[in-house]
Amino acid sequence: MKFDTPAGINPIDRERVIGRPHPRIEGPLKTTGRAVYSYEQHDAAPDAAYGYVVGSAVAKGRIARMDTSAAEGAPGVLAVVTAANTSPVKASGFYKAKPLAGPDIQHYHQAIALVVAETFEQARAAAQLLRVDYSRVDGAFDLTAARAGASRPKDKPDIRIGDVDKALATAAVTVDSTYTTPDHSHMMMEPHATIARWDGDQLTLWSAQQIVGWAVRDLSGKIGVPPEKIRIVASYIGGGFGGKGSVNSDAVLAALGARKANRAVKVALTRPLMPNNTTHRPATIQRVRLGAGRDGRLTAIAHESWSGNVPGGMAEAAADQTEMLYAGANRLIATRLATLDLPEGSAMRAPGEASGMMAIEIAMDELAEKLGMDPVELRIRNDMQVVPADPGRGGTDPQGGTSQADKSAGPKPFSTRQLVQCLRTGADRFGWSKRSGVPAARREGNLLIGMGMASAIRGAPIQAAGARATLRTDGLVSIETSMTDMGTGSYTIVGQTAAEMMGLPLDRVVVRLGDSQFPDSFGGGGQAGAATVTAGVYAACVKLREAVASRLGVNSADAEFTDGEVRSGNRRVPLKDAVKAGPITVEDRIEFGDLSKRFEQQTFGAHFAEVAVDAYTGEIRLRRMLAVCAAGRILNPLTARSQIIGGMTMGAGAALMEELAVDKRFGFFVNHDLAGYEVPVHADIPHQEVIFLDELDPTMSPLKAKGVGELGISGVAPAIANAVYNATGVRVRDYPITLDKHLTRLPALT
Amino acid sequence: MKPFTYERAKTPAEAAAAVARTPGAKFIAGGTNLLDLMKLEIETPTHLVDIQDLKLDRIEPTSGGGLRIGAFATNTATASDPRVRRDYGVLTRAIVAGASGQLRNKATTAGNLLQRTRCPYFYDPNMPCNKRKPGSGCSALGGYSRQLGIVGTSDACIATYPGDMAQAMRVLDASVETVDPQGQTRSIPIGDFHRLWGDTPHIETNLRRGELITGVTLPRPLGGQHFYQKVRDRASYAYALVSVAAVIQPDGSGRFAVGGIAPKPWRVAAADAAMPQGAKAAAAALLAGARPTEDNRFKVPLVERTLAAVMAEAKAA
């Protein structure tokens, strides 16, 4: 199916199953322990041996000598895999750092060996017997120090419109502030985990992977096994947040260990290994300059961002969303990347926006205060309905470094943009009018009370997607597609889509996900998954409807699939009659035309927060949170709400506690376990309210839907930061906002 | 984790003797800290002597009008004991401010007194650490030290004792009861139980080889108002940045110990005496000679402000 014109009315619009708050269809399996995750595939690999990953003890240097003999001779040990005794492992694919080091070391805890033994305890004990001599060399571990040497990534031209410096010089009111965000760890509940099994030259991995297609591609590239010889199964995933975007050391070393040991091998990363061995959200330094007239209208908006990474690693695109966020004639968006020898930075929930909004949305709060204007009103006043001059696209020379607006292209509209409605609804529902515009004005006993808000924006990508649909002889419809479910609700919305299309209740649909041998539908990432997979399932179901109509001898164009029947004119035939002669299986794939180029497709929202700050100790506790979201058709309000409140919780962590502490001498993240890296606990999270605005986006897909998994975090942390400022009158621009950063500047105790 | 042998002792003296005669042996109670450290090979006992059969889980009155809490009483049992809640509120409050419900169900009195520091460099076997590997150096000095100590530390180690329960016991002037391999018992004032690091940060208490904690005795109730205020970055399940355990009498006199800042529950007689002069004077006396790092300098004003909060609450009640 080709999708190149905006969707008209279709069976999805009936919303008999879609758009309804169905609980997760796989929920009972999970709550009763019957959902089989990657590490527990006992049926597939009943005799699996255990692999234990050994991480490098130094951040940069070489392995001068490694003696594996004691480990190899330890009880139960079957194999020790190192770079010296296995085929070369290449840096290839989405993650750039090598999953197996040697002799060169790129970062702390980079894997240097896998010890395979009969039991986990034997493998772990033997791992301590490796004798490794390193030659350690100095590295670059400090972003602040490396900032001066940062350069513009080739694929990220600066966006310059008008003359920012001139506009700032003449603006009635300006803000020029620098903000920092620290490195963040995904810290998903399920660690990276894989079982690998070879059957001849055929390799099967049961592996916690968000995108099985990428995992096949990247594993193939890294270990040199043809992709058609690799199958990856990821039936259930215990959270990913971008950290399972492709194969990590667990998957690569399980494959190599299984080959060497001639046994199925299972590998799970230990918690203390995860932050340094795998990827993280990179730290940023961001400078935001704003210029506005007394009326609050922005005349200049400049957002510059610096981050660091391993050679070849991506820049954190923290400034990008600012292009799409607010009006302003003079604009600068610039991204710079430094080389660091810390572990690799990569995607984590709303890469770019999560960090970028933490800066721009405090800057807007600072501007509102200088203007004496309500922060909600300031944002409404700077809304826009077309992309400003649409520069940096189309004919831009990516090598040129600077793009110029293509005046002939004409304005590019947003497909939908309900930012203002989100802001107004949120202000109304939150009781924003009760906020004092003067900071540190509201007290309750020893508590300083404040309210804050921020806008939210996150791109709405969608990918080509395929699915296989079968009408079985028992009348059930089964769907197979490679999309994964990280705990997000994919199973349920896939089932809802098929049920809606085929006119069945949800319990008449069987959903199978997360197998690279199923038709490809990308996976969970970039909040693309929901919109992508449901579009693919739609296409397959259209084809299935045609096949059913053909079997039943009715015209598929006017056939109505409802209540388990196919209705056409006066005819009403049970759907099941179509499979009297045997099941029907079809497969289709949806491909997208240029609608995403003709329309700017984004999701929008507004976040509101109320905090209480202890006037004595400076401790900050959240009291209320509200999110208002506009993201196309909400396929399932229950699972979508779970996505949003999960994002709000992660955003609260970013605001108040999450930070991978860098040791700039040894070059590693010091607090590399869940005792040291604090994420919010239940007691930190107050009442959370989520409102979805009615919206359909026919430019997206036949479902007219967008994802919400990353919109939920965008703007949360700055809303909290602004609430803290409103409570205390102390502006903290370095995240996380911990009590030490404002303690001695708090208002005097009464 | 290294392979180890295991036995369940029948009497306290037998347990003490078993540890004394076996090189590398250790006691195990709840295991909530020891097992984690064994997995990382920070602790490498060759033999574990389990004390669960020793009937040390009782909480009973003493002839002197106090309360004796068995070494194997769980934190949950102690915190919820009606006598503790009524007469030693600071202890209940301190215990429930620590860890999680699940851990408190398993953690014991003796184990909690012996829990080891949470310095992240101690927890990473690749890093120099005088406590883990004597003579290797202290990587926390000059490193990430936001959580670490500001007073009573040394050039060899700036780690803290991380627990909550012991802060309250220090305020209550509790005594640690022990038995040695010969069956001899002794009573150690809790203020003398933990050691300052000095040049030997790997030696953390004044227990002798094989000496087994059998219980903790609380003297007669002090009366007054009981407080435990724990300051942390998140609302629960976090170690204290600073905690204040205090008992304050109606006349403004009182006593307090501070957690999260030192190798042991930090209580200073001059600081207690200065309480009637207010938090500023008392905190100054408590922190005399403090040597904070750049990362944890904030703990100095935080101690004073937390104490002020406690004293204001006492006054308001």
Give the secondary structure arrangement, pairings included.
The complex is a heterodimer of chains A (about 750) and B (about 325).
Chain A: E1 2-3, H1 27-31, E2 49-55, E3 61-67, H2 69-72, E4 77-82, E5 104-105, E6 111-117, H3 120-127, E7 131-136, H4 143-146, E8 158-161, H5 164-170, E9 173-181, E10 193-199, E11 202-207, H6 212-223, E12 230-233, H7 249-261, E13 265-268, H8 274-277, E14 284-292, E15 298-309, H9 322-325, E16 330-339, H10 353-371, H11 375-381, E17 386-387, E18 402-403, E19 412-413, H12 419-430, E20 443-444, E21 447-459, E22 465-471, E23 477-481, H13 490-502, E24 509-513, H14 529-552, E25 560-562, E26 565-568, E27 571-574, E28 584-592, H15 595-598, E29 602-614, E30 620-630, H16 637-656, E31 662-663, E32 668-669, E33 687-692, H17 716-728
Helix pairs in contact in A: 10-17, 13-14, 16-17
Chain B: E1 5-8, H1 12-21, E2 25-28, H2 34-39, E3 47-50, E4 59-61, E5 67-70, H3 75-80, H4 82-87, H5 89-96, H6 101-106, H7 109-114, H8 165-171, E6 175-179, E7 185-189, E8 212-218, E9 225-231, E10 242-248, E11 254-259, H9 269-274, H10 279-286, H11 299-316
Parallel strand pairs in B: 1-3, 2-3
Antiparallel strand pairs in B: 4-5, 5-8, 6-7, 6-8, 9-10, 10-11
Helix pairs in contact in B: 5-8, 10-11
Number of domains of chain A: 3
Described by the principal axes of the CA atoms, the overall outline of chain A is: globular
Give the largest chain-chain interface (CB within 8 Å): A-B, 40 and 37 residues
Distance linking N and C termini of chain A: 69 Å
Integer-rounded radius of gyration of chain A: 27 Å
Shape of chain B: globular
**Oligomeric form of this entry?**
heterodimer
Contiguous helical run count of chain B = 11
Low-confidence spans of chain B: none
Q: List the secondary-structure elements of chain B in sequence, H or E.
A: EHEHEEEHHHHHHEEEEEEHHH
**Any idea what the CATH architecture of the largest domain in chain A is?**
2-Layer Sandwich
Mean pLDDT of chain B: 97
Portion in helices of chain A: 10-25%
Low-confidence stretches of chain A: 391-407
What share of residues are in beta strands of chain B?
15-25%
What kind of sheet is the major sheet of chain B? 5 strands, antiparallel
Distance between the termini of chain B: 51 Å
